[in-house]
Amino acid sequence: MRCHVFERLLRDVQQVNPYFRQKQDKAGRHGFSPHQKVTVALRMMAYGSPTNSMDEIHSMSESTCLHTLVQLCDTIVQVYKNKYLHEPSQEDLNQLLHKAENCGFPSIYGH
Description:
Layout: H1 3-16, H2 34-47, H3 51-58, H4 62-84, H5 90-102
């Protein structure tokens, strides 16, 4: 994932969900950073990484990994559903067709 895309995603989820903001416990120790939480969840989605491997790499428990994944998925849907989760308009289809033709796929929608 390109850095600017990651940073935009991180910023967007932090604005909506306080789970992705840096917190301290009662002893004043910082918990997992927003970057760590988003990275773990994205790795689990992208590579199908099991939670126990995230524990080994990021020192994050299995339950925290799963909770982080659920939080990120729910937040992504909440933030982006109006823009990305809808029936494509004719303009959307035209843009996709144009991109496909430029990549050598002239009839991806049966045209």
